[in-house]
Amino acid sequence: MEAFVNYILQFGNLNQQQTDFIMNKAKTLELNKEDYFSEAGKVPRYVGFLLEGVVRFCYYNNKGEEITHSFVEENNFVSDQQRFEAQVVASEYVQAISPCKLLVFSKKDWDEIGNTVVGWKAIEHLIIKSCLLKAIERRSPLVSENATTRYLSFIEYFPGLINRAPLSHIASYLGITQQSLSRIRKNIR
After folding, report:
1. Which residues form the Cyclic nucleotide-binding domain (predicted)?
2. Which CATH class is domain 2-140?
3. In a 10 Å sphere around its CB, with 0-12 CB exposed, 13-18 middle and 19+ buried, how is residue 185 labelled?
């Protein structure tokens, strides 16, 4: 819980009463490996803050292939924010790839925080901006680099993930086959 408070305080100042109000709105959610935090075809129920574990964002392309487009590790927000805010059906999945523990906020509670805590909207805006910039920073090299360089960048951005995520998910994220990933890993050892 302290990790969550420390995280949000990076983006603005809140007093003890405000952080207590926010924490009173939070609920704990535990996911088993392969459980979904959010599913395509359903309206996202929560904004979450990942206390333990790793999740991935994925979708199915027009060939029916599962594509992983991002990972989120501990001490970060997890949300299909645009669809959560609009309360519309999601087009992708958010899946636990390890056992996870999250603090979650329902739409009603999230809105109540925004309407009650002075300065929360500015903090929320900065958090969303930070998450988007991180995602862009991590994804941009994947467009122009060769597979080996993409893998090395992946290790740099997600040093703790290489032994926690299935190789099939990592390969999908990098846009290569699992066999190519195995070959790359073998060549750089």
Report:
1. 30-113
2. mainly beta
3. middle
